[in-house]
Structure formats: structure tokens, C-alpha cells
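Below is one record:
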Amino acid sequence: MKALKIISALLIVSGIFISCEKVIDIDLDDSKARLVVEGGLFIYTEPASNTGYQTIQLRTSHPYFGAADADYSVSGATVMVVNNTSGDEYIFTESNLQSGLYEINNLDPELNTGYTLYVSATVGGELQEFIAKDSIRQVAPPMDELSFHLDSTGSKSDNDKELGHLTLVSFLEPQETKDYYKFDTYLNDTLVRNEIDGGSQWILLKRDEHLDEVVDSVIINDYLIPLKNSGDDLRVEMTLITKETYFYLFTLWENAANAGSDFPAAEVKGNIINTTHSDRYGLGYFHCGSRSEILTTVPQ
């Protein structure tokens, strides 16, 4: 009888806990996905490199529980760029080979000219309109030399240290203007990642106030190119960007570095304005610039 009373009491207590259960629904509204814009317009210092080909990549931010490697590309969008001086309109068409990639083959940007990007795209099941503006203010100086410095990883006492090449460039920096630069290094057409913060940083930024008129062998990437890559192709792109683009990229770089990740831990607002819902500004950046490049092969 005593055992029966104990079992009965346990059942009553269990019933109390069961009856007190409450399902809490967390509203993760995927309809508030953001448009992400990557790309812009570029004019090259070397005339032969100006083919008129420009690209704009569109995708959406992925849902909270969405797979990071899923396809979030935005298809069926209308993408247009307008020359703010002449009023000329350029329509981009979506690539047949890559979803969400919009291309044009006859847009040669002009110096000292502003451009406006217009995008009409379905985001979160709703048609939304976006605009962004940037400009190309002057020509990027040509790079005179691409050189290498043999270095090693680890300390001198480290038996596992590896030898490799640091990449350096030289060019003349016009001191009469305020200039902002972005450097990208490609090994066999693959973008090289810096070793800073675990390899999370994919670009290098410099301001001219930190550069002399004669820029002689400045290191543009702390990635050591392995000796095994001797004879491989190496290409460096130096893009002259606007002050606004520089500080956007710097904030993005700083945010990602603090997170120790490829991606910033918090949203970084760029220049993509949502004219349908002002509080749902787009992510990414529409940027224009003048670009010079230099190519060589990795030495022995």
C-alpha cells in the first residue's frame, strides 16, 4: 500500500510537469532575407585589358538555419547601370553558365564619372528595388615591378619552418591626390589569402598617407608562396578605389578579423539602398575603380 502511494505521487508530479509544458515558437522570418551585391565597374590602366566586360553578382543572405553552402543566387533580376553624366543606360544579362551572375560586354567606364546601379529582384518572395552609387575619379598608377623576398615560417629554432616567397610591388604614387588602394594577388588565377588571422583576410588595403611618392618594394601579401610553386603564374591587381569604398572594405576586414572568420560577425552596411523597404538595405557593395595589374612567374 505504501509503495502504491509513492507511485501515485510520482504520477501526479509527472502530470503536473507535463501539463506545464509550453511550446515556444521562435519567429525566424526568412522573408526578411537581404539582397547581397558583389561587383562593380573597372577601367584598366593598360588599354589592352579594357574589354568592356563587367559583372554584378546577386544572391541573398541565407536563412538562420540554412546551409552555408546552399545556392542563394538571385535569378530573373533586372540589372542596369547608368552613367550619371551622359545618362547612357547599360543592361546586364544573366549568365547562361552561372546563376545570379549578370554580365555585360560593352561597358567601358570613364574617368571622373559617377555610375548608378539599379536592381529589381525578388527577395524573400517579394519584388524589391535597389540602387547604389560609386565613381571612378582618377587613373591607377602602373606598377613598375613585381618582386619577391625569400622568407620562412616559424622561428629560427623551428625545425618545421618552410621557405617561401613574399610578394612586393613598386610604383609611383601621385602625392597631389588622396588615394586609396586595394591589392589582390592571384597564383595561377586563384586568389591568394593572407596568413593574418588564420588566413581569413583575402585583400590588402593601403592609404597613400602611408606611402611615399616612390613606393619601392612594399609587401602586399604576407602569404608565403611555397618553393614548389616555382614557375607558376603570379598576378597582382592594384585597384584605385574611392574613400567610401576603402572604409567599407576596411570595416569588413576589421570585423572579419575580430571574428577570426572569413565573414564578419555582424552586418556591415554598404552602399546598397533598398527603395522598397528602407530598413532592409542590401549587403555587399557596388564599387567602381581604376585598376592596374602586373604578371610574372614565381622564381626558383
Observations:
- The chain has two domains: 32-138+263-290, 143-260+292-297.
- Residues 143-260+292-297 form one domain.
